[in-house]
Design goal:
With about 290 residues, the protein is mainly alpha-helical. It has helices spanning about 1-5, 10-30, 40-50, 55-75, 100-105, 110-125, 125-130, 160-175, 200-210, 220-235, 240-245, 250-255, 260-265, and strands spanning about 140, 145, 155-160. The protein is built from 13 helices and three strands. The chain is globular.
Length: about 290
């Protein structure tokens, strides 16, 4: 299966997700996955909902994983009628106000966590994209940040905020050993030959949210990406520009931020505002 995934140039995160999905399926029945069939898949799909409490979108991803395994690896038939995909659920993401974002960044428990949070918010990068930034990706001459190998293997450029550039320079001056490759090297001394893991970015968000008194909100690295897009839209940026900055393939993905932008929601009048209603206690008008 690993060979089939790599031949198709799947991203490493997708490869890990697919391998983990098949492994979980196999361990659930305590049997090799090639010894399991459609009936086991149906039982497993039900268990993902009832026993593991997975969301419909996660269950759909697990089914896509098994479909790839059975069709591409085992070369077996797959019946969608026998294993239908669950209906997807659409949830609006959590959005913080600019003041709350500032509280979150200021509450970072270390200078390293602070620069990670600033980078996530200032670039709208996914956490893997931010973790894999290289020193050469910060182009202070053109004031852009090069994000390479994003979702779908697509590169893109985003604006380099002067505030982020200044913060990165302070971070750089504070490093004992200046990295030559990765902007955010791994290990506690930031001297590793590999980048920081995405778990570190997740931890930075969780700890900052706790210290900022925002622990009741569902805050994670992707929250800052949503805030980046929503705050740009509220500041007057157009959807097409935001689509390019986020690296969305389809503009429809970007339209979700219209549901979150206070500027766009506030500019639309609610139907009751156009009604001429009588005041409380005022006699009813005759027809």
């Amino acid at each position: 299966m690993l060979e089939e995934l790599r031949r198709r140039n799947f991203a490493e995160t997708t490869i890990r997700t697919y391998l983990h999905g098949v492994e979980h399926f196999s361990r659930y029945f305590h049997r090799q996955p090639d010894q399991l069939g459609p009936e086991h898949i149906r039982q497993y799909q039900a268990a993902l909902f009832t026993k593991f409490n997975f969301s419909p979108n996660t269950v759909g991803l697990r089914l896509a994983t098994l479909r790839f395994f059975y069709i591409q690896v085992l070369k077996r038939n797959w019946s969608i009628a026998e294993t239908p995909y669950p209906k997807k659920v659409f949830h609006l993401p959590e959005i913080l106000s600019p003041e709350e974002v500032a509280r979150l960044i200021d509450a970072a428990d270390s200078p390293f966590h602070r620069i990670l949070l600033m980078t996530l918010y200032a670039t709208g990068a996914r956490r893997a994209e931010a973790a894999h930034l290289k020193v050469s990706d910060i182009d202070s001459q053109r004031m852009v940040v090069h994000i390479r190998g994003g979702k779908g293997g697509r590169d893109r450029d985003v604006m380099l905020s002067p505030a982020l550039l200044e913060a990165l320079r302070i971070y750089w001056r504070g490093l004992r050993h200046k990295p030559t490759d990765w902007l955010f090297p791994g290990n506690r001394w930031h001297t590793a030959s590999h980048p920081v893991t995405t778990k570190v970015l997740w931890t930075a968000c969780q700890q900052a949210a706790l210290r900022a008194g925002l622990e009741h909100r569902q805050i994670h690295p992707h929250t800052l990406r949503h805030c980046f897009a929503t705050h740009l839209l509220e500041a007057g940026a157009d959807l097409r520009t935001i689509q390019m900055l986020l690296g969305h393939r389809d503009l429809e993905e970007t339209t979700i931020y219209l549901h979150l932008s206070q500027r766009h929601l506030g500019a639309t009048s609610s139907p009751p505002d156009a009604l001429r209603l009588r005041a409380p206690g005022e006699p009813i008008r005759n027809i």
